[in-house]
Write a structure and sequence with these properties.
The protein is mainly α and 73 residues long. The chain is built from 4 helices and no strands. It has one domain. The termini are far apart. The mean pLDDT is 89.
């Protein structure tokens, strides 16, 4: 199949796509995504978790403890 025909078929198919996720992924693949990859809402959640961790409010588990627990199971 020649590339021009393939391009036209893709363009025609894209004109019928209503799924925002698919369109965003196509934009990303084509290098057209100018937005941050991480949504602002997710950044806020991460910032809050970092604050909780740094202030000692977040309970954490040492990696060695996790490995010990997993070897018991």
């Amino acid at each position: 199949m020649n590339i021009e025909l393939e391009r036209r078929q893709i363009i025609e198919a894209l004109s019928h796509v209503d799924d925002e996720w698919i369109l965003n992924e196509i934009k990303r693949l084509l290098g057209l995504d100018v937005e941050d990859e991480v949504p602002e809402e997710h950044k806020q959640i991460l910032d809050e978790r970092i604050r909780e961790y740094e202030s000692g409010q977040m309970k954490t588990v040492d990696w060695e403890d996790i490995k010990k627990r997993l070897s018991i199971v």
